[in-house]
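WARN retry 2 of 3 for item q-0093 after timeout on previous attempt; input resubmitted unchanged.
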Amino acid sequence: MFRFRFLASTVIVFILTQSLFCQISTDKQWPSFRGLNASGVMDNADLPDAWNIKENINLKWKTPIPGLGHSCPIIWDDYLFVTTAMSGNENEFLKVGLYGDIDPLEDSTVHQFRVYCLDKNNGKIIWDRLAHEGVPRTKRHPKASHANPTPATNGKYIVAFFGSDGLYCYDFKGKLIWSKDLGTLNAGPYTDPDVEWGFASSPIIYDGKVIVQCDFLGESFLTSFEVATGKEVWRTMRDEISTWSSPTIIDVDGKAQIIVNGYKHIGAYDFETGKEIWWMQGGGDAPVPTPVFSHNLIFINSAHGKMSPIYAIKPDAIGDITLGEEETSNKYIIWSIKRGGAYMTSPLVYGDYLYNLVNNGLLSCFNARTGELMYKEPLKPGGGISASGIASDGKLFFTSELGDVFVVEAGPVYKLIAKNPLGDICMSTPAISNCTLYFRTQHYVMAVAEN
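OK item q-0093 returned
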Protein backbone atom coordinates (compact mmCIF):
# COMPACT_ATOMS: atom_id res chain seq x y z
CA MET A 1 0.00 0.00 0.00
CA PHE A 2 2.85 2.34 0.94
CA ARG A 3 4.60 1.54 -2.34
CA PHE A 4 1.42 2.33 -4.30
CA ARG A 5 1.01 5.67 -2.51
CA PHE A 6 4.66 6.53 -3.15
CA LEU A 7 4.33 5.74 -6.85
CA ALA A 8 1.07 7.66 -7.09
CA SER A 9 2.66 10.68 -5.38
CA THR A 10 5.63 10.46 -7.74
CA VAL A 11 3.30 10.41 -10.74
CA ILE A 12 1.34 13.38 -9.40
CA VAL A 13 4.53 15.37 -8.81
CA PHE A 14 5.72 14.51 -12.33
CA ILE A 15 2.39 15.56 -13.84
CA LEU A 16 2.35 18.82 -11.87
CA THR A 17 5.94 19.52 -12.90
CA GLN A 18 5.14 18.88 -16.53
CA SER A 19 1.99 21.02 -16.29
CA LEU A 20 3.98 23.84 -14.73
CA PHE A 21 6.58 23.57 -17.51
CA CYS A 22 3.86 23.70 -20.17
CA GLN A 23 2.23 26.65 -18.43
CA ILE A 24 5.52 28.54 -18.34
CA SER A 25 6.23 27.63 -21.95
CA THR A 26 2.85 28.71 -23.33
CA ASP A 27 2.07 31.58 -20.99
CA LYS A 28 3.74 34.07 -23.31
CA GLN A 29 1.71 34.67 -26.44
CA TRP A 30 2.78 35.91 -29.89
CA PRO A 31 -0.14 38.27 -30.53
CA SER A 32 1.10 40.56 -33.31
CA PHE A 33 4.07 41.39 -35.53
CA ARG A 34 7.22 40.05 -33.78
CA GLY A 35 5.29 39.01 -30.69
CA LEU A 36 4.86 41.00 -27.51
CA ASN A 37 5.83 44.66 -27.95
CA ALA A 38 7.28 43.82 -31.39
CA SER A 39 10.45 42.71 -29.59
CA GLY A 40 10.94 39.43 -31.46
CA VAL A 41 12.17 37.85 -28.21
CA MET A 42 10.92 34.84 -26.26
CA ASP A 43 13.24 32.95 -23.91
CA ASN A 44 12.79 29.50 -22.34
CA ALA A 45 11.54 28.23 -25.70
CA ASP A 46 13.99 25.34 -26.24
CA LEU A 47 14.16 25.84 -30.00
CA PRO A 48 16.23 23.61 -32.30
CA ASP A 49 19.54 24.78 -33.75
CA ALA A 50 19.26 22.75 -36.91
CA TRP A 51 16.60 21.43 -39.28
CA ASN A 52 16.04 20.56 -42.92
CA ILE A 53 12.52 20.73 -44.32
CA LYS A 54 13.20 18.73 -47.49
CA GLU A 55 14.76 15.91 -45.48
CA ASN A 56 12.03 16.11 -42.81
CA ILE A 57 14.54 16.84 -40.06
CA ASN A 58 12.86 18.56 -37.09
CA LEU A 59 9.79 19.37 -39.23
CA LYS A 60 6.70 19.14 -37.04
CA TRP A 61 4.17 19.90 -39.77
CA LYS A 62 3.75 21.85 -43.02
CA THR A 63 0.42 23.21 -44.31
CA PRO A 64 -0.07 24.76 -47.76
CA ILE A 65 -1.74 28.19 -47.81
CA PRO A 66 -3.13 29.38 -51.18
CA GLY A 67 -2.52 32.83 -52.57
CA LEU A 68 0.29 35.18 -51.65
CA GLY A 69 0.85 36.90 -48.33
CA HIS A 70 3.83 38.32 -46.46
CA SER A 71 1.91 38.71 -43.21
CA CYS A 72 3.57 36.90 -40.32
CA PRO A 73 1.93 34.17 -38.23
CA ILE A 74 0.50 35.21 -34.87
CA ILE A 75 -0.34 32.78 -32.08
CA TRP A 76 -2.65 32.74 -29.08
CA ASP A 77 -2.85 29.52 -27.06
CA ASP A 78 -3.37 26.76 -29.65
CA TYR A 79 -4.53 29.06 -32.46
CA LEU A 80 -2.33 30.37 -35.27
CA PHE A 81 -3.57 33.05 -37.69
CA VAL A 82 -2.34 34.25 -41.09
CA THR A 83 -3.81 36.24 -43.96
CA THR A 84 -3.49 35.82 -47.71
CA ALA A 85 -4.61 37.42 -50.98
CA MET A 86 -5.54 35.08 -53.83
CA SER A 87 -5.13 36.52 -57.32
CA GLY A 88 -7.29 35.54 -60.28
CA ASN A 89 -4.06 34.54 -62.03
CA GLU A 90 -3.12 30.90 -61.55
CA ASN A 91 0.55 31.70 -60.95
CA GLU A 92 1.09 34.79 -58.80
CA PHE A 93 4.26 36.69 -59.67
CA LEU A 94 6.85 37.30 -56.97
CA LYS A 95 10.32 38.67 -57.63
CA VAL A 96 12.70 38.54 -54.68
CA GLY A 97 16.34 39.53 -54.37
CA LEU A 98 18.34 42.75 -54.55
CA TYR A 99 17.21 45.00 -57.37
CA GLY A 100 16.14 48.59 -57.95
CA ASP A 101 13.07 48.33 -60.20
CA ILE A 102 10.24 50.51 -58.90
CA ASP A 103 7.47 49.65 -61.37
CA PRO A 104 4.42 47.99 -59.75
CA LEU A 105 2.96 44.69 -60.86
CA GLU A 106 0.06 44.82 -63.32
CA ASP A 107 -2.70 42.50 -62.04
CA SER A 108 -6.28 43.74 -62.34
CA THR A 109 -7.89 40.36 -61.66
CA VAL A 110 -10.42 39.83 -58.87
CA HIS A 111 -8.65 38.85 -55.63
CA GLN A 112 -9.90 37.02 -52.56
CA PHE A 113 -8.65 38.44 -49.26
CA ARG A 114 -8.77 35.65 -46.68
CA VAL A 115 -8.05 35.00 -43.00
CA TYR A 116 -6.90 31.53 -41.87
CA CYS A 117 -7.01 29.96 -38.43
CA LEU A 118 -4.82 26.88 -37.89
CA ASP A 119 -4.22 24.51 -35.00
CA LYS A 120 -0.64 25.31 -34.05
CA ASN A 121 -0.07 21.75 -32.80
CA ASN A 122 -0.74 19.91 -36.06
CA GLY A 123 -1.22 22.56 -38.76
CA LYS A 124 -4.83 21.62 -39.49
CA ILE A 125 -7.00 24.45 -40.80
CA ILE A 126 -9.73 25.18 -38.25
CA TRP A 127 -11.44 27.83 -40.36
CA ASP A 128 -10.83 30.30 -43.15
CA ARG A 129 -12.92 33.33 -43.96
CA LEU A 130 -13.33 35.46 -47.05
CA ALA A 131 -12.91 39.01 -45.78
CA HIS A 132 -13.28 40.73 -49.15
CA GLU A 133 -13.44 39.93 -52.84
CA GLY A 134 -12.64 42.38 -55.61
CA VAL A 135 -9.97 43.98 -57.75
CA PRO A 136 -7.35 45.48 -55.39
CA ARG A 137 -7.67 49.25 -55.11
CA THR A 138 -3.94 49.71 -55.54
CA LYS A 139 -1.15 47.85 -57.27
CA ARG A 140 1.71 46.15 -55.46
CA HIS A 141 5.46 45.98 -55.79
CA PRO A 142 6.65 42.75 -57.49
CA LYS A 143 8.34 41.86 -54.20
CA ALA A 144 5.26 42.61 -52.09
CA SER A 145 1.82 41.02 -51.67
CA HIS A 146 -1.71 42.32 -51.11
CA ALA A 147 -1.60 40.72 -47.65
CA ASN A 148 1.48 42.37 -46.13
CA PRO A 149 0.13 43.53 -42.72
CA THR A 150 0.36 40.98 -39.92
CA PRO A 151 -2.91 40.43 -38.03
CA ALA A 152 -3.23 41.06 -34.28
CA THR A 153 -5.15 39.39 -31.46
CA ASN A 154 -5.87 39.87 -27.77
CA GLY A 155 -7.13 36.34 -27.16
CA LYS A 156 -10.75 37.23 -27.92
CA TYR A 157 -10.66 39.07 -31.24
CA ILE A 158 -8.48 38.86 -34.35
CA VAL A 159 -7.97 41.99 -36.46
CA ALA A 160 -6.81 41.55 -40.06
CA PHE A 161 -5.78 44.53 -42.19
CA PHE A 162 -5.56 44.54 -45.98
CA GLY A 163 -4.78 48.25 -46.38
CA SER A 164 -6.98 49.80 -49.07
CA ASP A 165 -9.13 46.65 -49.08
CA GLY A 166 -10.30 46.93 -45.51
CA LEU A 167 -9.87 46.30 -41.80
CA TYR A 168 -11.72 43.25 -40.41
CA CYS A 169 -12.37 42.00 -36.88
CA TYR A 170 -13.29 38.36 -36.11
CA ASP A 171 -13.86 36.34 -32.99
CA PHE A 172 -12.01 33.06 -32.39
CA LYS A 173 -14.80 31.07 -34.04
CA GLY A 174 -14.38 33.03 -37.27
CA LYS A 175 -17.46 35.22 -36.88
CA LEU A 176 -17.07 38.68 -38.43
CA ILE A 177 -17.63 41.26 -35.68
CA TRP A 178 -17.08 44.44 -37.69
CA SER A 179 -15.23 45.82 -40.69
CA LYS A 180 -13.93 49.23 -41.78
CA ASP A 181 -13.21 50.80 -45.14
CA LEU A 182 -10.35 53.25 -44.52
CA GLY A 183 -10.25 54.43 -48.12
CA THR A 184 -7.55 54.08 -50.74
CA LEU A 185 -4.18 53.98 -48.97
CA ASN A 186 -1.78 54.36 -51.88
CA ALA A 187 1.68 53.69 -50.45
CA GLY A 188 4.47 54.37 -52.91
CA PRO A 189 7.59 56.52 -53.31
CA TYR A 190 6.91 60.20 -52.72
CA THR A 191 9.25 61.02 -55.61
CA ASP A 192 6.97 59.10 -57.99
CA PRO A 193 3.32 59.51 -56.93
CA ASP A 194 2.03 57.38 -59.82
CA VAL A 195 3.95 54.33 -58.56
CA GLU A 196 2.05 52.00 -56.20
CA TRP A 197 3.90 49.52 -53.96
CA GLY A 198 1.17 48.28 -51.64
CA PHE A 199 0.38 48.80 -47.96
CA ALA A 200 2.23 47.04 -45.11
CA SER A 201 1.70 48.61 -41.67
CA SER A 202 0.30 46.08 -39.17
CA PRO A 203 -2.38 46.84 -36.55
CA ILE A 204 -1.80 46.31 -32.84
CA ILE A 205 -4.31 45.71 -30.04
CA TYR A 206 -3.77 47.24 -26.61
CA ASP A 207 -6.14 47.83 -23.69
CA GLY A 208 -9.26 47.22 -25.76
CA LYS A 209 -8.20 49.43 -28.67
CA VAL A 210 -6.90 48.76 -32.18
CA ILE A 211 -4.18 51.15 -33.34
CA VAL A 212 -3.55 51.60 -37.06
CA GLN A 213 -0.84 53.73 -38.69
CA CYS A 214 -1.82 54.85 -42.20
CA ASP A 215 0.98 56.80 -43.90
CA PHE A 216 0.51 57.04 -47.65
CA LEU A 217 0.49 59.48 -50.57
CA GLY A 218 -2.52 61.36 -49.26
CA GLU A 219 -3.82 62.57 -45.91
CA SER A 220 -1.84 60.31 -43.59
CA PHE A 221 -3.23 59.54 -40.14
CA LEU A 222 -2.91 57.50 -36.95
CA THR A 223 -6.18 56.16 -35.54
CA SER A 224 -7.68 54.21 -32.65
CA PHE A 225 -10.77 51.95 -32.71
CA GLU A 226 -12.60 50.05 -29.97
CA VAL A 227 -11.74 46.43 -30.70
CA ALA A 228 -15.14 45.13 -29.50
CA THR A 229 -17.27 47.47 -31.63
CA GLY A 230 -15.10 49.10 -34.30
CA LYS A 231 -16.07 52.57 -33.04
CA GLU A 232 -13.42 55.16 -33.85
CA VAL A 233 -11.98 56.68 -30.67
CA TRP A 234 -9.75 59.33 -32.25
CA ARG A 235 -7.90 60.12 -35.46
CA THR A 236 -4.75 62.25 -35.62
CA MET A 237 -3.55 63.56 -38.96
CA ARG A 238 0.15 63.16 -39.83
CA ASP A 239 2.29 65.29 -42.11
CA GLU A 240 4.00 62.24 -43.58
CA ILE A 241 4.80 60.42 -46.81
CA SER A 242 4.38 56.68 -47.35
CA THR A 243 5.79 54.44 -44.63
CA TRP A 244 5.51 50.68 -44.26
CA SER A 245 6.35 50.38 -40.57
CA SER A 246 4.04 49.33 -37.74
CA PRO A 247 3.52 51.27 -34.49
CA THR A 248 4.74 50.12 -31.06
CA ILE A 249 3.11 50.86 -27.70
CA ILE A 250 5.24 51.47 -24.61
CA ASP A 251 4.54 52.39 -21.00
CA VAL A 252 6.04 55.65 -19.76
CA ASP A 253 5.44 56.31 -16.05
CA GLY A 254 2.11 54.49 -16.17
CA LYS A 255 0.88 56.13 -19.37
CA ALA A 256 0.82 54.38 -22.73
CA GLN A 257 2.52 56.00 -25.72
CA ILE A 258 2.32 55.01 -29.39
CA ILE A 259 5.73 55.13 -31.06
CA VAL A 260 5.86 55.48 -34.83
CA ASN A 261 8.60 55.49 -37.43
CA GLY A 262 8.60 57.94 -40.32
CA TYR A 263 10.58 60.14 -42.66
CA LYS A 264 9.21 63.61 -41.92
CA HIS A 265 7.61 62.63 -38.64
CA ILE A 266 9.16 60.07 -36.30
CA GLY A 267 7.44 60.46 -32.93
CA ALA A 268 5.18 59.49 -30.04
CA TYR A 269 1.45 59.96 -29.43
CA ASP A 270 -0.70 59.69 -26.33
CA PHE A 271 -2.54 56.35 -26.45
CA GLU A 272 -5.75 57.72 -24.92
CA THR A 273 -6.10 60.92 -26.93
CA GLY A 274 -3.85 60.70 -29.97
CA LYS A 275 -2.14 63.94 -28.92
CA GLU A 276 1.42 64.40 -30.14
CA ILE A 277 4.10 64.10 -27.41
CA TRP A 278 7.43 64.34 -29.22
CA TRP A 279 8.56 64.34 -32.83
CA MET A 280 11.63 64.53 -35.02
CA GLN A 281 12.80 64.45 -38.63
CA GLY A 282 15.74 62.55 -40.05
CA GLY A 283 14.84 59.10 -41.31
CA GLY A 284 15.17 57.18 -44.53
CA ASP A 285 12.60 58.28 -47.09
CA ALA A 286 10.82 54.88 -47.24
CA PRO A 287 10.61 53.74 -43.59
CA VAL A 288 9.82 50.07 -43.01
CA PRO A 289 11.28 48.97 -39.61
CA THR A 290 9.11 48.95 -36.49
CA PRO A 291 10.37 50.75 -33.33
CA VAL A 292 11.55 48.61 -30.39
CA PHE A 293 11.68 49.51 -26.68
CA SER A 294 14.37 48.04 -24.43
CA HIS A 295 16.82 49.21 -21.71
CA ASN A 296 14.43 52.15 -21.20
CA LEU A 297 15.31 53.38 -24.69
CA ILE A 298 13.34 53.57 -27.93
CA PHE A 299 15.31 52.19 -30.88
CA ILE A 300 14.33 53.35 -34.37
CA ASN A 301 16.12 52.67 -37.63
CA SER A 302 15.49 53.12 -41.36
CA ALA A 303 17.37 53.35 -44.64
CA HIS A 304 16.53 54.72 -48.06
CA GLY A 305 17.59 57.81 -49.93
CA LYS A 306 20.19 60.05 -48.27
CA MET A 307 19.77 58.75 -44.71
CA SER A 308 20.05 55.39 -42.98
CA PRO A 309 20.10 56.22 -39.25
CA ILE A 310 19.75 54.35 -35.98
CA TYR A 311 18.41 56.33 -33.01
CA ALA A 312 18.33 55.50 -29.27
CA ILE A 313 15.74 57.82 -27.71
CA LYS A 314 14.71 58.40 -24.10
CA PRO A 315 10.99 57.70 -23.53
CA ASP A 316 10.45 60.93 -21.55
CA ALA A 317 11.16 63.07 -24.63
CA ILE A 318 8.95 66.10 -25.22
CA GLY A 319 8.53 68.41 -28.21
CA ASP A 320 10.83 68.64 -31.21
CA ILE A 321 13.94 66.52 -30.58
CA THR A 322 15.38 66.66 -34.10
CA LEU A 323 19.19 66.50 -34.14
CA GLY A 324 21.24 69.35 -35.51
CA GLU A 325 23.14 68.72 -38.74
CA GLU A 326 26.39 67.85 -36.94
CA GLU A 327 24.83 66.29 -33.83
CA THR A 328 24.63 62.59 -33.00
CA SER A 329 23.05 63.08 -29.57
CA ASN A 330 21.10 65.64 -27.53
CA LYS A 331 19.04 65.81 -24.36
CA TYR A 332 16.73 63.00 -25.45
CA ILE A 333 18.66 61.13 -28.13
CA ILE A 334 21.31 59.18 -26.22
CA TRP A 335 23.20 57.97 -29.28
CA SER A 336 22.74 57.65 -33.01
CA ILE A 337 24.50 56.77 -36.23
CA LYS A 338 23.76 58.66 -39.42
CA ARG A 339 24.41 55.82 -41.86
CA GLY A 340 24.17 52.06 -41.49
CA GLY A 341 20.55 51.48 -40.45
CA ALA A 342 18.36 48.81 -42.03
CA TYR A 343 15.94 49.33 -44.91
CA MET A 344 13.61 46.35 -44.39
CA THR A 345 14.29 44.74 -41.01
CA SER A 346 13.32 45.99 -37.56
CA PRO A 347 16.05 46.27 -34.91
CA LEU A 348 16.57 43.29 -32.63
CA VAL A 349 17.58 44.13 -29.06
CA TYR A 350 18.56 41.09 -27.03
CA GLY A 351 20.53 41.16 -23.82
CA ASP A 352 22.95 44.08 -23.86
CA TYR A 353 23.13 44.35 -27.64
CA LEU A 354 21.28 45.77 -30.62
CA TYR A 355 21.49 43.79 -33.86
CA ASN A 356 20.97 45.65 -37.12
CA LEU A 357 20.62 43.59 -40.31
CA VAL A 358 20.61 45.34 -43.69
CA ASN A 359 18.87 43.69 -46.61
CA ASN A 360 22.10 42.52 -48.26
CA GLY A 361 22.85 40.42 -45.17
CA LEU A 362 25.39 42.61 -43.37
CA LEU A 363 24.84 42.11 -39.64
CA SER A 364 26.03 44.75 -37.15
CA CYS A 365 26.09 44.40 -33.37
CA PHE A 366 26.05 47.49 -31.12
CA ASN A 367 26.15 48.00 -27.39
CA ALA A 368 22.50 48.97 -26.95
CA ARG A 369 23.17 51.50 -24.20
CA THR A 370 26.15 53.29 -25.73
CA GLY A 371 26.08 52.64 -29.48
CA GLU A 372 29.58 51.13 -29.51
CA LEU A 373 30.03 48.92 -32.55
CA MET A 374 30.98 45.38 -31.47
CA TYR A 375 31.16 43.74 -34.88
CA LYS A 376 30.01 43.91 -38.48
CA GLU A 377 29.83 40.59 -40.36
CA PRO A 378 28.19 39.44 -43.63
CA LEU A 379 25.71 36.56 -43.41
CA LYS A 380 26.08 35.98 -47.17
CA PRO A 381 22.43 35.06 -47.83
CA GLY A 382 22.85 34.80 -51.62
CA GLY A 383 20.06 37.33 -52.11
CA GLY A 384 18.03 39.76 -50.03
CA ILE A 385 16.69 39.69 -46.48
CA SER A 386 13.25 41.12 -45.67
CA ALA A 387 12.24 39.21 -42.52
CA SER A 388 13.19 40.73 -39.17
CA GLY A 389 15.33 38.84 -36.68
CA ILE A 390 14.06 37.07 -33.58
CA ALA A 391 15.88 35.72 -30.51
CA SER A 392 15.56 33.00 -27.91
CA ASP A 393 17.80 31.32 -25.31
CA GLY A 394 21.04 32.96 -26.44
CA LYS A 395 20.42 32.45 -30.16
CA LEU A 396 19.47 34.83 -32.97
CA PHE A 397 17.43 33.70 -35.99
CA PHE A 398 17.66 35.57 -39.32
CA THR A 399 15.71 34.37 -42.37
CA SER A 400 16.74 35.13 -45.95
CA GLU A 401 14.34 35.62 -48.85
CA LEU A 402 15.65 32.39 -50.38
CA GLY A 403 14.53 30.53 -47.25
CA ASP A 404 17.81 29.98 -45.41
CA VAL A 405 17.67 30.58 -41.67
CA PHE A 406 20.95 31.73 -40.08
CA VAL A 407 21.29 30.83 -36.40
CA VAL A 408 23.81 33.14 -34.72
CA GLU A 409 25.11 33.07 -31.17
CA ALA A 410 24.01 36.15 -29.23
CA GLY A 411 26.74 38.36 -27.83
CA PRO A 412 29.49 40.81 -28.78
CA VAL A 413 31.45 38.26 -30.87
CA TYR A 414 30.05 36.90 -34.12
CA LYS A 415 29.58 33.13 -34.28
CA LEU A 416 27.41 31.34 -36.83
CA ILE A 417 25.86 28.23 -35.26
CA ALA A 418 23.94 26.86 -38.25
CA LYS A 419 22.38 27.65 -41.62
CA ASN A 420 19.11 25.81 -42.17
CA PRO A 421 17.02 25.62 -45.37
CA LEU A 422 13.24 26.00 -45.44
CA GLY A 423 12.97 24.91 -49.07
CA ASP A 424 10.75 27.86 -50.03
CA ILE A 425 10.93 31.63 -50.42
CA CYS A 426 10.38 33.41 -47.12
CA MET A 427 9.58 37.12 -46.72
CA SER A 428 7.93 36.92 -43.29
CA THR A 429 9.27 37.10 -39.75
CA PRO A 430 8.80 33.79 -37.86
CA ALA A 431 6.91 33.30 -34.61
CA ILE A 432 7.80 31.37 -31.42
CA SER A 433 5.49 29.30 -29.26
CA ASN A 434 5.81 26.21 -27.06
CA CYS A 435 9.30 25.05 -28.10
CA THR A 436 8.47 25.58 -31.78
CA LEU A 437 9.43 27.99 -34.56
CA TYR A 438 6.64 28.87 -36.99
CA PHE A 439 7.54 30.06 -40.49
CA ARG A 440 5.25 31.53 -43.13
CA THR A 441 6.82 30.96 -46.56
CA GLN A 442 5.54 31.69 -50.06
CA HIS A 443 3.48 28.49 -50.19
CA TYR A 444 3.26 27.14 -46.62
CA VAL A 445 3.01 27.67 -42.93
CA MET A 446 5.40 25.26 -41.22
CA ALA A 447 6.37 24.33 -37.69
CA VAL A 448 9.95 23.43 -36.72
CA ALA A 449 10.72 21.70 -33.41
CA GLU A 450 12.99 19.00 -32.00
CA ASN A 451 11.64 15.63 -33.15
